[in-house]
């Protein structure tokens, strides 16, 4: 029975109905096609073993699955530990290869079902969240079906260019347009579709269903095309109507959150709906009446209505408050009264994502350009967010613009527009759908939502950065707090009361009511709390962060700070959901243009273009571009240039100009210094007439900054100023000049003034000036201050940098004090402070800085290596650790023209304990190499005989560096002489040789102690074997997790034979190699994964030919490989019967110079967890040993033998190898056998009788 599809009077709402059912029809038409194609995909990617869960196949940590790791627990892997499975790993790799973006959704799938279930393979190509419980294609939604076709590359062969040209992710791709249709329909704000859009939807969907490659011949797709045509022509059955209402219900659930409360109780049945259109209309009238009654009942709830009204009033008051306090920004650090609107002058910041890497946060290449990237991670809102940046980088301004954006979308006009969009017939539609679903009592899975992209209250912005204002819509309130005004206040609620509520309301009773409302809002509503300036906040209770009450669980917190504070506060990782680095503005010259545009003389566009061009030329000429990243300094430089003052890049010079400009406001008298107290005051004109005021302010700045009470160091009282000689006259001068500012603390009882310097960096510059003029204060005051507070040496970093340009000898002394505190703390930010100080000293023409630094942690570009090298030269005798990462150069310009290379000589580093080097531009100098290397950084390691070059070294880690086999040999030779343990690792290093070229990607871990060398090799090379040649090694251990694959056996054997002091050799090998034991060898332990009988015979012949006695232990699997090692696409294990090795043992027993003390066959009895088993004894329980007759079996050399390589050998032996053999032999030189002829004669007679007994017993045991 056909039904008219015009259910709603509103045409566009009716069109939305049609669009919803059109998507469902299209999904059903594609289902069989996708099921058939997924079977083909399954065949291509392969079938798993059926036993491995997905957690076993994903390394830990892997983003984004392991991002919420807490200590040693990963919520994704749980108790599962990654372990290799060649079969499943091959399937996993193929799935990745077939994914368009190489990022399958592993959370959706169950790898143990990859063996049989096609759909589990298909789920890897679905969106990352919300599909794990979907068990079939039929249960999936339209979005899932289209995502599989887009993400799986197999479907490129199933669709014609009509659907894939241009290819995804191009938005013009027809298949991308199909997905966008689904999004537009699901995420509609008013449940309306225009006639033109509806016709375009049907045309696009029909084109896909009629694709000539395969779909136009698919029966389900043909039926779907017909149904789309019927739907387009207003023909639809009542059954289709029911499906439509059901689909519309769940679409509205995702896309629209209604403001009213609707009942889901109804008295109608599905039979009434089938009775005809008249019953449906009657039901509609009943539903509308019922819902209106419910709405009236709801609105009679007085408390709720009262709360909503009070909340809306507070919202409007806060928007006005923010409009008064945060809507403008100063355009000049020199003139506080010169302001412009934030939206007119603001430029988006340069925000970089920070990620935790090996215990420390590292900056990534990910640039944050949307609020969505700041506030959300993996679809969930972050609870605690941090933005770090240096002084003047724009942290406070970024929070101000965030507040302004939130105000924009929450203004009365915006709320009215939102209310209108959610009213009318779309509201009726939601009611109708809800009640119909209640009648039918059929549950339906919730449609999965993606990014909400609805535009709301679009506004003018300087660029498309942070344009997603709707992301902020989820927050009912945004609270802005300046932490410097809440020192010693721990509770965030109390901060909000004092800084916001007290500023809005003057009456005490109204404040009390607002306090209660504020608490209720924070308990009930989603809120965002912005805390600006963590580095300017202290608390007597010793807490590192302000506290949010447990009942305010709906509130998220965003905190700004300087980097050192975040490092020293020791904030647990669990409390940092996201960390961002703010580095100033993205486009400094565009910002300078906006600043110039605020000047009256530059209102004309042609004049502005000319001014901007001249300013850019001035910046490039004076190398000032590096300072433009800071908005504050950029403003200063722009306005100074406009005023006709130029500078050379010195921070001291800039702040001297800054200070002079401020002083000019209070006193226009001009007079130059004849003999300035510091060099940067030399050409100033307004400082000398005001020098007494400057000295008093400098003294106050110093003593307040280094006071006993840290909470009063930045915000202080009238009493504090008077204590340092600032009376009313001096304070008036400071206020008039703008050096000091005053605010009033809001209080219900009384208000009192509080004071601060206009910017913390101004206070730091004046404090540094005071130190430069009174250097004894370093010992008298600063030393005690550093002793009182553990992190204080980082807190005074900017003071130190200024001091480097003002008084170099004082700066050197202070660097020594700071370094003493850093020796134990090892703050990775401290070396960058010394580097900044060095550059400031050079900018002020101080070339003999000699700053002290013990821990060198530098991750730098090639352009910065020269300055680091200069600091190194001054500190070779002080250095305890060198951690140097050189980012790879891109061009000869980046490498610099001043030097062809920089040499870091380790010969004088007698205290060096840790050496970490990373970068392809690093080369260990080899004087024998001609021509010399073109690498930028040369590491010089000259051993001064008889002492080693670096006698205190404990750790060496080389990553991607270049080192010759000769230099590596010398390094190992030195390490072997040390009396303490040294760990030396090579990761992807290039080892060169003057004879045989070079090898790349060498990876090995080595431990050295007292002529003992343990090597764990993951990627070996012939040059590595060259480095071992003739070393003074007494004990050598060679292995890896799965055994060493020696590719250059001849070279290895030659190096082995050259080790004239070697007594013990232990090796874990994948396959047999020919070895030449040195004459000094006494003990030989070899563990082979697989060993042929012929290879065993050859090995025995080699050992028998030795001229010394060798005690040998052999362990090997009875098998051979049928594939090239590491080739997972073609492999196999062929078993070898253990009896094939028995004749060899029998031959050995007949030899006079060979004693077989052990011959044991072990059979595998079960599998074990290779990740959980590490005990040799426990591993041995997975094997059963056969009796070996009367051959001696020395128990102390059994499976409990303490040998790490033996443990790894048994642990990682291939699961398909079911037999292994354990042997222990004592081989003496043949020439000495005559001395024991009598004993051997007796032995030979006994063996003739015993051998027959042994053979019979072994055959009997094997048969059993």
UniProtKB/TrEMBL annotation:
InterPro entries referenced in this protein's UniProt entry, alphabetically: DUF4559, P-loop_NTPase
Coiled-coil segments: 238-290
UniProt keyword Coiled coil, yes or no: yes
Keywords: Coiled coil
Highest taxon of source: Eukaryota
Protein name according to UniProt: NACHT domain-containing protein
Species: Dreissena polymorpha (Zebra mussel)
